[in-house]
Specification:
Elements lengths: L19 E6 L6 H12 L1 E5 L18 H6 L2 E2 L12 H17 L3 E5 L3 H9 L9 H14 L1 H11 L1 H6 L5 H14 L3 H8 L7 E7 L3 H18 L1 H10 L14 H8 L5 H24 L5 E3 L4 H12 L12
Parallel strand pairs: 1-4, 1-5, 2-3, 2-4, 5-6
């Protein structure tokens, strides 16, 4: 199942003299936590989380955070960073993750980035793309169109003008759809073209990106089982506690997978059966979107979780000292 890794197109991203970072990515429920911990122990590394939900405190079960026992095996960073009502985005993640990588390397350890949030991984490796300046008039017109026609119609229009971006975005990701249409109408170029231009403008690391993949029927079965395990582990009580602590169900993290479903059930908007069914369905859809993102990312080497010896060998080869260049030393 593993595939050869294409050469890095950016000199700095593939520069053996640059700080080396290993990334382990893949869809939810693919086994990243177990493989990441095993790799970190094998390589003398520490894990930098790359999960947009695991940064939030109090949200443990629904985010599938590593357990205290797992975190005791290997140091973890970028987990439990902020409260659910605190703002957090890819720019803040990149700044904190780069600081963590530098600290890990200073102590002579191997930085191992593990997670399924492709945007966070991209921000860490290549920086944040600010994009062209906006146009308030275009933004207002798009907002009126959104109110009149709905976000799905705008997503369909984006698919005509910027199919690459439309494929990556969820059809209800209102903010990013509006921004992509604004850039398209303001500049005449798709935002994906600007992002490609920027992609290697800020690439401080030599990176080895490993992806975990399993057959889709097996992945979906694992997702369904994980949902049941989360409920058995106390996800209902976790959501009740968050609501009792005053965290609104309309907060961005409370709108994430699992939390919005259980909150709707607790508020009487869904039955338990419907909440569980839609949680499983939406998690499967999310895994599909993750794979779409990662499949569009150049340079990922794909492995099955069971191929751990090959994964570890690829990492050891990547971490080998760069060969010396220049004339041989005088004897």
């Amino acid at each position: 199942m593993s595939a050869p890794c294409p050469p890095h197109p950016a000199p700095r991203a593939g520069d053996r003299a640059a700080p080396r970072v290993i990334v382990l990515c893949g869809p939810t429920a693919a086994g990243k936590t177990a493989v990441g911990i095993a790799l970190a122990r094998e390589l003398g590394g520490e894990i930098v989380g790359a999960d947009a939900m695991q940064v939030y405190r109090r949200m443990d079960i629904g985010t599938a955070k590593p357990t205290p026992a797992e975190r005791a095996l290997v140091p973890h960073h970028l987990i439990d960073v902020v409260e659910p009502d605190e703002p957090f985005d890819a720019a803040r993640y990149a700044a904190l993750a780069r600081r963590a990588v530098a600290d890990i390397r200073r102590r002579g350890k191997v930085p191992l980035v593990v997670g399924g949030t492709g945007l966070y991984i991209k921000a860490l490796l290549h920086g944040i793309f600010p994009g062209p300046a906006g146009d308030p008039a275009v933004r207002l017109r798009l907002a009126a169109e959104l109110a009149a026609r709905g976000v799905e119609a705008l997503h369909a229009r984006l698919a005509h003008g910027d199919p690459e971006t439309a494929r990556r975005l969820h059809p209800r990701d209102t903010a990013r759809i509006l921004r992509a249409l604004e850039v398209l109408e303001t500049t005449g170029r798709p935002i994906s073209a600007f992002q490609q231009d920027h992609r290697f403008a800020d690439s401080p690391y030599a990176s080895l990106i490993l992806g975990l993949e399993i057959e889709r029927p097996l992945l979906y079965a694992r997702i369904d089982r994980r949902v049941e395990e989360m409920l058995a582990a106390g996800l209902e009580e976790e959501v009740r506690g968050l609501l009792a602590a005053g965290f609104s169900p309309r907060l961005k993290p409370m709108q994430s997978l699992g939390y919005r479903h259980v909150a709707a059930w607790l508020e009487g908007r869904l039955s338990r059966e419907e909440a569980v069914r839609t949680m499983k369905r939406d998690t499967r859809r999310y895994a599909k979107r993750q794979m779409t993102w990662f499949r569009a990312t150049a340079g990922i080497r794909w492995f099955a979780p069971a191929e751990f010896p090959a994964i570890a060998a690829a990492c050891r080869a990547f971490l080998e000292p760069a060969p010396r260049t220049g004339p041989p030393a005088a004897r």
